[in-house]
């Protein structure tokens, strides 16, 4: 048997990135982790998402970039 964390289907949220609105679908755990990472940096979640968006490769979707960012930050913290 394996213990699974609470799971949700992806939640679609609208964000404004550099003046344009877009929507991103992520699981609640990723939304919470992005908020945590933003707060650790003294910025809003939307600002953090905008920075990730600007720095992602063009062939990688925003939702994928956000998930990989969260996983990378968890790995840095030994999580």
Q: What is the percent of helical residues? A: 40-55%
**What is the radius of gyration?**
13 Å
- E-strand count: 2
The average pLDDT value, as a whole number, equals 93
Order of strands side by side in the largest beta sheet? 1-2
Structural class, from helix and strand content? alpha+beta
Give the overall shape.
globular
Total domains, how many?
1
H and E order:
EEHHH
The profile of the biggest β sheet is:
2 strands, antiparallel
Helix count equals: 3
Low-pLDDT windows of residues: none
Protein name: Ribbon-helix-helix domain-containing protein
InterPro entries: RHH_dom, RHH_sf
Organism: Paracoccus saliphilus
Pfam family, one: RHH_4
How would you concisely characterize the structure shown here?
With 79 residues, the chain is an alpha+beta fold.
Topology, please?
Layout: E1 11-17, E2 20-26, H1 28-40, H2 45-55, H3 62-76
Antiparallel strand pairs: 1-2
Helix pairs in contact: 1-2, 1-3
InterPro entries: RHH_dom (IPR027373), RHH_sf (IPR038268)
Domain Ribbon-helix-helix: 11-73
Pfam families: RHH_4
